[in-house]
Design a protein that fits this description.
Distance between the termini: 62 Å
Bound molecules: pyridoxal-5'-phosphate
Strand order of the largest sheet: 2-8-7-6-5-3-4
Strand content: 5-15%
Shape: globular
Structural class: alpha/beta
Number of domains: 2
Number of helices: 15
């Protein structure tokens, strides 16, 4: 008998709707508000980088790249990593170019997480980790970090490790906490994972955006962490080109081999002329070494504009975000307040609750300061005028 009923989807991600970033960016656009919500720069990338892409496009490098990425870019990443962290990754076997860090995060999780495996996730958490874990049958085990410092209690981490723990996901500099891990944190983590079957996924997309002269603590600097880590980077973040969606993963050869199997069938490869352009651009270390100072000046400009405001804050330690606590101004929950600030005061932000699976409300909003100086000045003025928003 003919069955006329339509197929029904049994969603693998039943709780996931449109991301808050899309919602707030649209609201900012509709309300003509300053958009400090989604994490993208509103200023142009370096002309030299754009010209390099054009150069390679015009020279005809417009077909598929090799699966793991073009050799010059993998070599350039190996040189950068060795220069910064004094450790070697083999360009052929241990470096893979991906379509943004998002793809790298997914492929790393898919490479090692099987149904029933537990994955420790610190929240607030960047929004792609948990769906990737769940799509691969894993179970997210949450550890909650709280503002304003978001410090990690390593005893608590130890207590969450079980025989089913397959991976721990970490992010430093952290979005949205804006905190950074210290050498001591790395040591604590190493003492927990040493001798276990636990892999690490280290999201280091803001590695070049660290403030106050502090050095980024990459997982590759610690031998116990390096041997079990997939480390993900993003050129979109570093070079103000988030729309290019180009990132990479560095990991020991055995991990990379498994990662490549997933990458091969997710995207196979990523776009050729941009890879070649980045390989040339990375030859000048100033291009990445200057990024921290550039964003530190932006952070300071944004915070300088808030001197007389009633928001309270701990200055961001890294990433291009700043959290502001509004408990002196309003009792409203952070989502509703973020919407009202956008509609009524003309500044869009992201409520930090959305980064917690139980939507913990700490009366804190995240602002992106990867914006031109005029936007930052205007945002400061507008936010300073808010004394109460009852
Ligand atoms: C912590 C974190 N990880 C990963 C990403 C994704 O990077 P990409 O745009 O290169 O995919 C972002 C982007 O906002 C991020 O903030």
């Amino acid at each position: 008998m003919e069955n006329s009923s339509k197929p029904v989807i049994h969603s693998k991600l039943p709780h996931i709707g449109t991301t808050i970033f899309t919602v707030m960016s649209k609201l900012a656009h509709d309300c003509n508000a300053l958009n400090l919500s989604q994490g993208f720069p509103n200023f142009p990338a370096d002309d030299e980088l754009i010209l390099l892409v054009e150069h390679y496009m015009k020279k005809g490098f417009n077909q598929y790249a090799p699966m793991s990425g073009v050799q010059p870019l993998r070599e350039a990443i190996a040189i950068m990593v060795e220069k910064l962290y004094n450790t070697v990754y083999h360009p052929e076997k241990e470096i893979i170019i991906t379509s943004g860090a998002t793809e790298a995060l997914f492929a790393a999780i898919a490479a090692v997480v099987s149904p029933g495996d537990e994955v420790i996730v610190f929240e607030p958490a960047y929004d792609s980790y948990v769906p990737a874990i769940e799509l691969n049958g894993g179970v997210a085990v949450y550890i909650t970090l709280e503002p304003p410092y978001f410090n990690i209690n390593w005893q608590q981490v130890k207590a969450k490790v079980t025989s089913k723990t397959r991976m721990i996901v970490m992010n430093s500099p952290h979005n949205p906490a804006t905190s950074v891990l210290t050498a001591n944190d790395l040591q604590e983590l190493a003492s927990i994972v040493k001798g276990t079957n636990i892999f690490l996924l280290s999201d280091e997309v803001y590695e070049h955006i660290v403030f106050n002269g502090v050095k980024h603590q990459s997982f590759c600097t610690h031998p116990v962490l390096k041997e079990r880590s997939f480390i993900c980077g993003s050129f979109g973040k570093t070079f103000h080109v988030t729309g290019w969606k180009i990132g990479y993963c560095v990991a020991p050869a055995e991990l990379s081999a498994e990662f490549r199997k997933i990458h091969q069938y997710l995207t196979f490869c990523t776009n050729t002329p941009i890879q070649l352009a980045l390989a040339d651009f990375l030859k000048n270390p100033d291009n990445y070494l200057s990024v921290s100072a550039f964003y530190e000046a932006k952070r300071n400009k944004f915070l300088g504009g808030l001197k007389n405001s009633r928001f309270t804050f701990i200055p961001s330690q890294g990433s291009y975000f700043q959290n502001l606590c509004y408990s002196a101004i309003s009792d409203e929950n952070d989502f509703d307040l973020a919407v009202r600030l956008t509609k009524e005061k003309g500044v869009a932000s992201i409520p930090v609750s959305v980064f917690y699976h139980k939507l913990n409300d700490y009366k804190t909003l995240r602002f992106c300061f990867a914006k031109d100086d005029e936007t930052l000045e205007r945002a400061g003025e507008m936010l300073s005028r808010i004394n109460d928003i009852a």
